Amino acid sequence: MKNLVNFLRNHLKLEDNNYIRYKYATALEESGQYQPATEQLEKINLTDLLQYHANVIRLTLGRLYYSIKQPKKGGQYFDEAVDNYDDQEKTLLYSARSILANNSDHKKTIEKLDEIAQHSPRYADALKMLTLNLTSEEYFDRIDPKIKLEDTKMLNE
């Protein structure tokens, strides 16, 4: 990995290229150098890119900022990606998974998963992830009152 990082860094010295910069940033990320990876991605002018490519950068920046314990900045990039992508639910789900992977902002993850579950019942993944990551109290507060009654009866038997 070190050789790849060095190769890409040297290539950028010869030619400033967004694709090479992105590959360099992902190589830095894979080697655990999250801060330098964010610095490289921040140099890319997103308005010069196709919408899909710009969103890949936004999602990567969001994930990286969560990795370096800057959830507010990471959340901003995730929100921008959601706002600028046709399949907003898929982007929300990806951002929630990224947050969970870094396990640094449980409340924000729950909000994103809940947003998907409320607006798109076809996203069973969001419901499953939401349920698995709720505390017992949060889960009980979110379920249907009829199911609560049945669960309570079952516990009292």
Structure characterization notes:
78% of the residues lie in helices and 0% in strands. The protein has 157 residues and is an all-alpha fold. It has a single domain, classed as Alpha Horseshoe (Serine Threonine Protein Phosphatase 5, Tetratricopeptide repeat), CATH 1.25.40. α3 (34-42) runs antiparallel to α4 (51-67), α4 (51-67) runs antiparallel to α5 and α5 (71-83) packs antiparallel against α6. The longest helix has 17 residues, at 51-67. The protein is globular and about 70 Å long. The termini are far apart.
Task: Label this structure with key terms.
single chain; 157 residues; mainly alpha; Serine Threonine Protein Phosphatase 5, Tetratricopeptide repeat; 10 helices; 78% helix
Overview in brief:
With 157 residues, this protein is mainly alpha-helical. The protein is built from ten helices and no strands.
Q: What is the CATH third-level topology name? A: Serine Threonine Protein Phosphatase 5, Tetratricopeptide repeat
Summed over residues and divided by their number, the pLDDT gives a mean of: 76
> Can you count the beta strands?
0
CATH class, please? Mainly Alpha
Helix content: over 70%
Tell me the radius of gyration: 20 Å
User: Would you tell me the structural class of the helices and strands?
Assistant: mainly alpha
What is the secondary structure topology, with strand pairs?
Blueprint: H1 2-14, H2 18-30, H3 34-42, H4 51-67, H5 71-83, H6 88-102, H7 106-119, H8 124-133, H9 136-142, H10 145-156
Helix pairs in contact: 1-2, 2-3, 3-4, 4-5, 4-6, 5-6, 6-7, 7-8
